Amino acid sequence: MNRDEGAREEVARLAARYLRERRASSADAAIDLAIREVGVTARDARPSLARLRAHAQALEESERGAASREQRIDATVDEMLEVLALLEEALVVLDRDAPD
Known about the structure:
The longest helix has 32 residues, at 66-97. By secondary structure, the chain is an all-alpha fold. It has five helices and no strands. It is 82% helix and 0% strand.
């Protein structure tokens, strides 16, 4: 991991904590606050929202324990199954409408 990636990870970790502690009112505000605290330029250290979300989930899981992680995994699997069911339904409709 290079210096910029390390800074992005630190900013994401701090921003997730600031959101959790309600020290910031939005993801952007939390990231800006974390960037100032880490002391890097915004251009080099601004994490993606996906990276921020991953840190927020990790923070929640560490606070709530293994049960929280299992619940999140179960919810993700349920969402994936719903998407697959929708895709299957769409394929059936497309297949039915396809010319012979």
